[in-house]
User: Fold this.
Amino acid sequence: MEPNTAEEFDTMPHIILTQGGEWDPTVLDHILTDDDDWVSKVKRNEDQEYDSPFNNRGEYKHREPVRAGVPIENPTGPPSEDPDDIEVNFHSDEIEVNFHADDATRQVHQAYQEASNLNKIYVYEGEGMPDDVVETVEEEEDETKENIEANTPPVETKPKPIDYSKYRRQFLHVPTKKIRKTFAATTQNAASIVYGPRQTKISSLQTLHLTFVKERKQ
Amino acid sequence: MIHASKHAIKRSKRGTLVDRGANGGILGNGAKVIFKRNKTADVTGIDNHELNALPMVDATAKTITDKGPVILILRNYAYHGLNQTLHSAGQIKWYQNKVYDTSMKVGGRQVIKTVDGYYISINII
Assistant:
């Protein structure tokens, strides 16, 4: 807005923003707070009521109670049925693996847990078992799967001849033949049980003792 | 007595200002006085002090509307002569004009629609 010239006043259209006469600044004064019925006067029918999703205590009003036995839908959707839904990219110095499905990620996680299971039990049997009977890696995987299904720890059997001569010190240097007969009279299936690195010597001996007692009962 | 909002007075060299808290217009240096009335007004809210006995005047000014430049007829304004002209939203509405002084940032229109159908833009700064 700027002052106009006389020529502009004569040529341009006139817009009356405020009219003449006496201006009383108090004509707009109105005290509403003293009116007891002010609420009905200020509200309009077209005013929309705000429907908050939370109640007066701030709790979500549309919450569904948790019911036992009712499955909850997976927010990521149904698992993919494509077994090859894993993307592997070979770069110059590294390998990039992308898992595109939730089930593939779970399978890899289970495989990792299986591979890193330090509590795997190995049982070494006595002499007489030829080397060609040693189970292959594939058989080991199948056995492991069966054991997982039966909820039992995986067991792998390996042949190992017993050197009775190294036990002579514990048997008061008796002949090796007597030591072999003593072994034959005691346990046959229990042997060195290898657990994780945290297993103590005492717990290993306790396991041996329990196996021995079990065989005696049979 | 005419009251003006303090925040509206500190602006200078800006667009048209509409003070929704004022109960009367205050004329700055952007209009041409064509008639001086015998009545005076005391104005508070400008520069943190009261301006006493400002003359009530009628003035004209050129502004831009949606239909091109027009001459605004401003009657019953307290003449200050400095800085921006302050239009009273209540005073303008009293004469059947529409004042949409809500900022566009919150869904407003920032425009005055005169009784003759002209649209005058409002700056909110």
User: Anything to note?
Assistant: Chain B has one domain: 2-95.
